[in-house]
Design brief:
Helix content: 40-55%
Structural class: alpha/beta
Largest sheet: 6 strands, mixed
Number of domains: 6
Number of strands: 20
Shape: globular
CATH class of the largest domain: Alpha Beta
Strand order of the largest sheet: 5-6-7-3-8-9
Length: 616
């Protein structure tokens, strides 16, 4: 493979620290490299050194003659005075760019909901970010540097970007270097990983899962002071190996070595014990949404007359004690409205919401509102005014110990809250919420400003949290890691996803295909017309006897699901009142519960298949 660019003995110092010392590395044709490391260790700085935007204090960076380098920076600024079309394709005639399959793919994948001839000044921050990414990807580059490209992309957008980058170049040409905390994306796209830490860049073979294995092997031989870090990575590896089969087949590492490392690791979560604790803290009633619809007033864009927009329609969701659920949906689908119904911030237009008497709900919001009153206080003073201890699994920990578990150093305890980094504020925000001991925790995009190590630490803490957990996130890895089931909001309805995120993406692709194939749909690549439908994407409808048989089967499945729901509720009650010292009995009840839940999953899968065949 031909060499594209290289760095030799790079040395860079900032006034307070050495960022890089004697770093040597290279990028060849065909490289797909993910860059990981703690926030502030120099990941973005490394990209700036390699693409020539920053000059090192020592050493040198060399580029192959004529190399074309494209970069997406975290702080990219698009020209607000231009239209989207002007910024993305410049002065190129429409018939020229519309004839380029790559350009059409980028525009449809990133700018489906962005007005093609609209002014950039009128766009949201997330839309501007996607315009900047699209403008980069329509160009021809030998090397592409991407700094946090998944920011402002939903699950579907991230999957599209991964697919685009995998097919952008032939296998042994072009090169990609990407900084991201999205671990699914790293595994899907990258064939090598660079870890930036302690002034060096350490290379690893493979994507995120392979990196975790090699890091565990490295940490196993490290000093005793690294014990906590070792254990956390071992647990992460255990989940990767026991997770979805598709994930474990991709990494290029020794499966036998991985199995040996996790042989004595307990299950990631003790579901029976967590369910027992959740029921004892919550009772059997949490929050029930019964035939709930939500409408908001709006102005008809054509007539200008007052109208209403239905966001959620006939939603039924009975949240169980200890339930760990992820919510998926495109931006604007109604995820925040759904969570508002759970918390009471949104009132239903029709239907009713029933909350258990002992429910205490807390939300980890995106805005960091919980820290406003503590802005001028030191971290140590903030935690001193909270609870003196907190139960994590079977261990009692002080707030200081929890802070240490979440990556705070002793020196940082004396730092005013307003001077913390974004990731540190995020971790402190979570700690303050957990110290209130809610029994229902809502996480709304919790991965903002967190590096992969801190995400693993928070996931580890949530594994032992005995309550009901609801998560809205575009981070596919997080959703699969901390939740046991997923729902999607599609066309205003809440839909169970027995096969998880992959099933959601299939439904969205089917929806897009149905919209494209609809009578009157334009075959010309018009970006403004590329907005995605949110219907279920059904197969061709049935007719006659076949339709009647399908309707009968659907009704039968509904009856069976209702009976199973009653049996599961009864088992939850038995778990709550059962002798907690009778571990054999608890295990038997847990096994019965899992069998019923497996039957429900099978029936729901069949229900989805039949219902799709009935849709027109």
């Amino acid at each position: 493979m031909a060499h594209l660019l290289g760095a030799e003995r790079l040395h860079l110092e900032f006034p307070t620290r050495v960022v890089f010392d004697e770093v040597t590395l290279g990028i060849d044709e065909g490289d797909r490299i993910g860059v990981v490391g703690r926030n502030g260790d120099g990941k973005s700085t490394l990209l700036k050194l390699l693409d020539g935007r920053l000059t090192a204090d020592g050493g040198r960076v060399t580029h192959r003659r004529g190399i074309r380098i494209g970069t997406l920076d975290q702080s990219d600024v698009v020209d607000p005075g231009k239209t989207v079309a002007e910024f993305v394709v410049g002065g190129i005639e429409e018939h020229v760019w519309a004839g380029d399959a790559k350009v059409r793919d980028v525009i449809a994948g990133l700018l489906g909901d962005v007005p093609w001839h609209g002014q950039i000044a009128s766009l949201s921050g997330g839309q501007r970010r996607r315009v900047g990414l699209a403008a980069l990807l329509v160009g021809d580059w030998d090397v592409v540097f991407l700094d946090e490209p998944t920011n402002h992309l939903d699950v579907e957008g991230i999957a599209w970007l991964a697919g685009h980058l995998k097919r952008r170049w032939p296998a042994d040409s072009g090169a990609l270097v990407v900084v991201t905390h999205d671990r699914w994306f790293l595994d899907e796209v990258c064939t090598a990983t660079w870890e930036v830490h302690d002034g060096i860049v350490e290379p690893f073979e493979g994507g995120y899962a392979a990196y975790v294995l090699q890091r565990v092997e490295r940490d196993r031989s490290a000093a005793a002071s690294e014990a906590k870090r070792q254990n956390l990575m071992r647990k992460e590896l255990a989940w990767l190996r026991r997770g979805p089969p598709a994930r474990t087949s991709k990494p290029k590492f020794r499966i036998d070595a991985a199995n040996e490392l996790i042989a004595n690791e307990p299950p990631i979560r003790n579901k029976v014990e967590l369910d027992r604790l959740a029921v004892s803290r919550l009772g059997k009633d949490v929050v029930d949404l019964i035939d709930v619809s939500v409408q908001f007033p709006m102005t008809d864009p054509v007539t200008g007359e007052p109208a209403t927009r239905t966001v959620l329609h006939d939603v039924e969701w009975r949240i169980a004690p200890g339930e760990r659920t992820g919510i998926l949906g495109v931006n604007g689908a109604g995820k925040s409205t759904l969570l508002g119904l759970v918390t009471g911030a949104v009132e239903p237009t029709s239907g009713r919401v029933k909350r258990g008497k002992t429910v205490r709900i807390a939300t980890l919001s995106q805005e960091l509102n919980e820290l406003t009153e503590w802005a001028d206080s030191r971290v140590s003073a903030v935690v001193a005014e909270q609870r003196s201890s907190y139960q994590v699994g079977d261990k009692e920990m002080t707030p200081g110990q929890l802070l240490e578990r979440l990556g705070f150093t002793t020196a940082q305890l004396s730092t005013p809250v307003k001077n913390l980094s974004g990731g540190q504020k995020r971790r402190l925000q979570l700690l303050l919420i957990l110290l209130q001991e809610p029994n229902v925790l809502i996480l709304d995009e919790p991965t903002n400003d967190l590096d992969t190590d801190m995400l693993a630490a928070i996931e580890d803490l949530l594994d032992s949290w005995p309550g009901t957990l609801l998560v809205v996130s575009h981070d596919r890895y997080l959703i699969e890691r901390v939740t046991d089931r997923q729902f999607a909001i599609l066309d205003g309805h809440l839909r169970d996803l027995p096969r998880g995120v992959e099933q959601y993406l299939e439904l969205r692709r089917a929806s897009d295909a149905a919209a494209t194939a609809a009578p009157g749909a334009s075959t010309t690549p018009q970006p403004a017309a590329a907005a995605k439908s949110s219907t279920g994407g059904a197969a061709a409808s049935l007719a006659g006897a076949d339709r009647r048989n399908a309707e009968k089967e659907l009704a039968s499945i509904d009856r069976k699901l209702e009976k199973l729901s009653v049996q599961i509720a009864a088992l939850h009650e038995k778990l709550a009142v059962h002798d907690q010292g009778d571990y054999v009995g608890l295990t038997a009840l847990g096994d019965s519960l899992r069998e019923l839940e497996a039957s429900v999953a099978d029936l729901e899968t069949r229900w989805l298949e039949v219902s799709e065949s009935l849709e027109s």
